[in-house]
Write a structure and sequence with these properties.
single chain; disulfide bond; BPI/LBP/Plunc; Bactericidal permeability-increasing protein, domain 1; Bactericidal permeability-increasing protein, domain 2; innate immunity; 2 domains; glycoprotein; 23 strands; antibiotic; alpha+beta; rod-shaped
Length: 471
């Protein structure tokens, strides 16, 4: 239950922002949350400590009887029937019915001024009901906090069995003991329910509202709108935006509205829009992380094409003449953020960049040879690993034009095959190695995703998954 309360929480930051990520919690998910929560609540209620009680009553025909109840402990408690329901547009309601508890303690009585008796007793209560509403709000850190409100409890039928002492006394004062214990227990249950709900808050603080990715980026998953609560599910809108670590600058584009389909077979659905992935491109490009020096050592030894002036001199003779027998180095980098597009069953990326070629002098200084402008088209496969979204790219085609030459004019097209090979064997593997590490999805504590399915739809990726909490 505590796991899902996090996802119900409202963290109102900027209501005008469209969410980049959407989350849907279904009835199946709520049911799993209820099972977790009830185990925690039952454990909490078993800690009920009933204080010693004492009192007196006039009991015919013996007159005033003074009694005391001591050493009382809960020996059994069950919550066999419970329902966690959604109140559309309002919140969450928890109802517990047909609960029971058993209590053991000691009794002592005194009557006729000088006669004393004692023994033990067992109290059993059936038909215990508890109903509470759970309020959800943001704390001072922008994370969710929960509290119990409007708690009502009712104790059903009770039976008392006395052990030891004079049996004829039992029926004389059992009704007084029954009433005293009922009043004491009734005062204890709702505060413990409130404590059990409040105890969830430290766990809720594990929500990765700001998830660290690497030294360049972090993702913000704060809520940007109130949860839409219906009778069957909860729809949440999260910011879902990448930022440079410690420097939150908005990209020159914004999220557009999108809606999740009416699927309910999984516990949880996560929709990740192209805005989220494109904000990642903006962040990494701005950080200068989308650049790579390619050297000959990164080319497979079996390749006949080498990064040296001899190979390139076969296509650009002036290179071999001016820089004979030198190794070369290429700087591949983006000049603007790459654009990722989601279409049904298809993920594509368009990247605009440059390739700068250098000759490496014997003293290791670099002599620029030329700069090429490059447009690359890449297809991608995305998948879920653990609680991360990962991917792999395949280069489709490149188009290159001459940006600047330090060795005179030449036909750029003659180099297409060389650079296509360089990108495929040196650049794309580096990119895929990073994508394989994945980027964190919204998560809470020790949360695992199971039975996960991923669909690429128009404008967003849809992840349908069940959830398993291991702690």
């Amino acid at each position: 239950m505590s796991a899902w309360l996090t996802l119900l929480a409202l963290i109102p930051l900027t209501l005008a922002i469209n969410p980049g990520v959407k989350v849907k919690l279904t009835e199946k998910g709520l049911e799993y949350g209820r099972e977790i929560g009830m185990a925690s609540l039952q454990k909490k209620l078993k800690t009920i400590k009933v204080p010693d009680l004492s009192g007196s009553a006039k009991v015919a025909p013996i007159g005033k009887v003074t009694y005391s109840l001591t050493g009382m402990q809960i020996v059994n408690l069950g919550l066999p029937k419970s329902v966690l329901g959604l109140v559309p547009g309002t919140g969450v309601n928890l109802s517990i019915g047909n609960a029971f508890l058993n209590l053991h303690g000691n009794w002592r009585v005194r009557y006729l001024k000088f006669i004393k008796d004692s023994g033990s007793f067992d109290l059993g209560i059936k038909g215990l009901t508890i109903t509470t509403s759970i309020a959800i709000k943001s704390d001072e850190t922008g994370r969710p906090s929960v509290s119990s409100i409007n708690c009502v409890t009712s104790l059903g039928s009770a039976t008392i069995k006395f052990h030891g002492g004079a049996s004829w006394l039992y029926n004389l004062f059992s009704s007084y003991i029954d009433k005293a214990l009922r009043n004491s227990l009734q005062k204890k249950i709702c505060p413990l329910v409130a404590d059990a709900v409040t105890d969830m808050n430290p766990h809720l603080k594990t929500l990765n509202v700001l998830a660290k990715v690497d030294k360049y980026a972090e993702i913000e998953y704060s809520m940007v709108e109130s949860p839409a609560i219906s009778k069957s599910c909860i729809d949440l809108g999260l910011k879902g935006e990448f930022y440079n670590v410690g420097a939150h600058q908005e990209p020159p584009f914004s999220a557009t509205p999108f809606s999740l389909p009416p699927q309910i077979s999984n516990m949880l659905y996560i929709g990740i829009s192209s805005f989220t992935t494109n904000s990642a491109g903006f962040v990494y490009n701005k950080a200068g992380a989308l650049s790579l020096y390619v050297t000959d050592g990164m080319i497979p030894p079996s390749s006949p094409i080498r990064l040296n002036t001899r190979t390139f001199g076969a296509f650009i003779p002036q290179i071999a003449k001016r820089f004979p027998g030198l190794m070369m180095k290429l700087l591949v980098k983006t000049v603007q953020e790459p654009i990722i597009t989601f279409e049904p069953n298809n993920v594509t990326l368009q990247a605009t960049g440059t390739v700068t070629a250098y000759a490496i002098q014997p003293n290791t200084t670099l002599s620029p040879l030329f700069v090429l402008n490059m447009e690359a088209s890449v297809s991608a496969r995305v998948y879920v690993t653990g609680v991360k979204l990962a991917g792999a790219m395949t280069l489709n085609k490149i188009q290159m034009t001459l940006g600047k030459s330090y060795v005179g004019d030449f036909q750029v097209k003659s180099l297409d095959n060389i650079f296509l090979m360089v990108l495929k064997v040196a650049v794309i593997p580096k990119v895929n190695a990073r994508l394989e590490k994945g980027y964190p999805l919204p998560s809470l504590g020790k949360m695992n995703l199971v039975n996960t399915q991923l669909q690429v739809l128009k404008g967003y990726i849809l992840i349908g998954t069940d959830v398993l909490f291991t702690g």
